[in-house]
Amino acid sequence: MIDFQLLKTEEGLNRVLKSLARRGDTSAAAELKTVAEKRSATIREVEALANERNVQSKKLGELKAQGKEAEFDALRETMKTVADRLKVLKEQEAKVEENFLHVLARVPNLLDDKVPDGKDEHANVVVRKEGEIPQFAFDVKPHYEVAEAQGLVDFERGVKISGARFYVYNERIARLERRLANYMLDKHAAAGYSERMVPLVVKDECMFGTGQFPKFADEYYRMEKDGLSLIPTGEVPLTNIYADEILSETELPISLMAFTPCFRREAGSAGKDTRGLVRVHQFYKVELVKFVRPEDSEREWLRLTADAENILKGLGLTYRVVALCSGDMGFTSSITYDLEIWMPGLKRWLEISSCSNFKDFQARRAKIRYKNAAGKNEYLHTINGSGVAAGRLVAALLEYHQTADGNIDWAAIEKKLA
To answer: Ramachandran region of residue 24, left (φ > 0), alpha (ψ -120 to 50) or beta?
Structure first.
């Protein structure tokens, strides 16, 4: 959540409105401006009337002490009117505040000044590329064609069991993804991340804390009877480990990771990536989360991005780092780098990780603070990224290690995981 103190000044409000305009969110900007001005006007009216009450109450005491009964009685009647009006205003203020917080909860994070401007993904900026586009002496097939031909993934039985965009891994590929998980976890542990095993269902306040609720509630699998949701990413439980807590500065930075299944009701645009392992409703990934001091957040965000990149480098995959533009930014992020791998079978770039600096946005929502050197409680910054998505990694390895006869060079994959 953005700092609502910003909305108390014209300069702060303009800063928020400018960020929303860069995102192309004009409706949110108009609504926020309206409710912020209504809130400020109501607060001013309540404060003015309360001040009048206090002044007149003091005057009542003076009149009574002076024995001026007639003036005392007249002022007391006036004060009853003031008290009645103040009661009504207080009730209005509570409703205005509730509506203000309702709107504020749906306002996205402020964009970092370094985020490039643009309407959509076509305006994203390539920061750098690593590796060369692999060349093959034969036409490389998409991973799903190889997986089906080799009996590695059973898409039909996945649909039979759970519906569209679910799948069953058969033995060899199930073992490969498990090995990839260990490979990633071991690499990240060496880089300083501490592993956690977390719940796969979370309370609504956890989804609110990381920004999934309330605006995007329909995109996730929810168990209404229990008031719980299946996690869309390990980011949710990992971040909420410290919800409603005050950490000490000496504990920071804290770097956590977890390998979890992820559940997404929304799985991309209709008709896009409906085949294979690219957009599915259940998938696995290693998630990286950092809790840092505000002054360290940019450096730690770049470190986390480099940690995710090291997985791709170690497996010999060609990738690029892409700075998301203002119109393609996620709701909670202030700045994001996507890591995209080249898929020789799909013949395009595919996002495999998003590394984002949320600054204090999630910390405010989840109430995560730290006591700084001056002894003052301050909101810390949170950083998050996939390190990386296991299913897409499997898909990439199948495409990179095809052979001309349609098989997979398993020995080459094993060598990289050794």
So the answer is: left
* Cα separation, 332 vs 92, whole angstroms: 31
Asked whether the beta carbons of 59 and 75 are under 8 A apart, the reply is yes
**184 in Cβ contact with 387 (< 8 Å):** yes
Q: Tell me, which fold does domain 4-104 have in CATH? A: Helix Hairpins (1.10.287)
Residue 328 pLDDT grade (very low, low, confident, very high; cuts 50, 70, 90): very high
Q: Are 180 and 225 in contact (CB under 8 A)?
A: no
**How much is the average pLDDT of 190-202?**
98
Nearest CA to 262 out of 152, 150, 390, 157 is that of 390
- The structure tokens listed for 303 are 């470190």
Which residue, among 271, 287, 313, has the nearest Cα to 386 in the 3D structure? 287
Q: How far is Cα 331 from Cα 110, in angstroms, rounded to an integer?
A: 9
Residues contacting residue 366 through CB under 8 Å, at least 6 positions apart: 206, 208, 209, 210, 239, 240, 242, 243, 244
pLDDT digits (tens, 9 = 90+) for 1-47: 999 889 888 899 899 999 999 999 887 788 888 998 899 899 988 88
- Contact between residue 263 and residue 231 where contact means Cβ atoms under 8 Å apart: yes
Structure-token match 């500065």, residue found: 249
CATH for 121-417 is 3.30.930.10
Cα–Cα distance for residue pair 264/357, rounded to 1 Å? 22
Q: At 92, which amino acid appears?
A: Q
Global pTM?
0.91
CB contact set of 169 (below 8 Å; sequence gap of 6+): 152, 153, 154, 177
Domain boundaries, the chain: 4-104, 121-417
CA distance 415 to 24: 47
By DSSP bridging, strand 194-195 and strand 153-154 are unpaired
Residue 380's CB is within 10 A of a number of other CB atoms, namely 27
**Partners of 323 in beta bridges:** 125, 337
Note the pLDDT of residue 267: 56
